[in-house]
Design a protein that fits this description.
The chain is mainly alpha-helical. It has helices spanning 2-8, 10-29, 33-39, 44-65, 73-81, 142-166, 173-209, 214-218, 224-227, 240-249, 256-267; strands at 102-103, 107-108, 114-116, 121-123, 128-130, 135-137. 29% of the residues are buried.
C-alpha cells in the first residue's frame, strides 16, 4: 500500500523539490538581501532562510509519505461493529437502514471515513485527496499537512520580500526586464503561491477550530450522521480551544461513534 502511494506521487514530489531548489538558488545567486548578508559575513539570515526552506520540505514529505489513516478491514470489523456507525451506504442503491456503513471495496468503515478513488482505500476522518502532496489528508497526517502549510507560507513570504529586494532599476523597460527576468519570475511564482497557501491555511484552521473536515463541510447534506442535525450543530465540536488541542496534540485514533452517540443522547 505505502509503495503504491509513494509511486503515485513520485513525479509531484520531485517537481516540488525541484521548484523549491530553483527558486532558492535564484534568490541566493542574485543581488538580494540574502546575497548581500552572505557577502558581509552576516550568515544568520541566509542560514535562517535555508533552514526554513528545509523545514518546509521535510514537513511536505512527512504529510506526503505517511499513512493518512487507511482503514484496514481485518482490524476495523470489531471496532466498528460495537459503535453507532454511519447509516449511509457508500454503494449506490443500497439500503440506508443498514446499521453499519459498508464500502464495496473495503468492507466495514468507521465513522467519518470515506473511500478515496485515487488512493483506492478508505481513509479515517477523511478530509480530501491533495494532488499537491500526492496523498490523502486524513486523521493521521492532517496536523502535519497544516504545519507544512505554515512553514511553506513563511518561506514563500520571505521569498517574496527577498525577490523584491533584488530587483534593480534601469532606464528602459526592456533593459529592466532583461536584468530582472529571473527575480520577476521568482516574485510572481512565490506571490501567487503565497495567496494559495494563505487561503488553504485559513480554511483548514477554521475547519480544525470547529472540528469538521472539508468533505463534511462540503457534503454535509449527503452524510447521514450529519444531515439530521441543524446547520449550526456539530456532534464532534467541543469548543475552539479543545478542538485545536485535539487536532494538534492528540495523536491516538478517536472512536468517533462514541463521540457522536454521546452528543446525540445529550441533545435529546
Amino acid at each position: 500500500m505505502c509503495q503504491r502511494v509513494f509511486r503515485a506521487g513520485c513525479a509531484v514530489r520531485a517537481g516540488h523539490v525541484a521548484v523549491t531548489w530553483v527558486v532558492s538558488w535564484t534568490l541566493f545567486l542574485h543581488d538580494t538581501d540574502l546575497r548581500r548578508c552572505e557577502e558581509k559575513g552576516e550568515l544568520a539570515r541566509p542560514a535562517g532562510f535555508a533552514l526554513l526552506v528545509l523545514l518546509s520540505v521535510l514537513l511536505y514529505f512527512a504529510a506526503s509519505l505517511m499513512d493518512p489513516g487507511f482503514v484496514r478491514a481485518d482490524c476495523e470489523l470489531t471496532a466498528t461493529s460495537d459503535g453507532h456507525a454511519e447509516l449511509e451506504d457508500m454503494m449506490p442503491g443500497a439500503s440506508t437502514s443498514c446499521q453499519l456503513r459498508r464500502c464495496g471495496y473495503c468492507l466495514l468503515l468507521p465513522m467519518r471515513a470515506k473511500h478515496c478513488r485515487v488512493c483506492k482505500h478508505c481513509v479515517r476522518r477523511y478530509d480530501h485527496h491533495c494532488p499537491w502532496i500526492g496523498n490523502c489528508v486524513g486523521e493521521r497526517n492532517h496536523r502535519w499537512f497544516l504545519l507544512y502549510l505554515v512553514a511553506q507560507l513563511l518561506a514563500l513570504l520571505w521569498a517574496v520580500q527577498t525577490s523584491w529586494s533584488g530587483i534593480i532599476f534601469a532606464p528602459t523597460w526592456k533593459l529592466w526586464l532583461t536584468q530582472n527576468v529571473f527575480l520577476l519570475a521568482a516574485l510572481a511564482f512565490t506571490g501567487v503561491f503565497s495567496g494559495v497557501v494563505i487561503l488553504l491555511l485559513g480554511s483548514h484552521l477554521y475547519l480544525a477550530s470547529i472540528s469538521t473536515t472539508t468533505w463534511e463541510f462540503m457534503s454535509r447534506h449527503r452524510i447521514s450522521y450529519l444531515k439530521n442535525f441543524d446547520m449550526d450543530e456539530n456532534p464532534f465540536d467541543r469548543g475552539v480551544m479543545c478542538n485545536l488541542w485535539n487536532f494538534f496534540c492528540v495523536c491516538r485514533t478517536v472512536t468517533w461513534e462514541k463521540v457522536h452517540s454521546r452528543f446525540s443522547r445529550n441533545s435529546l
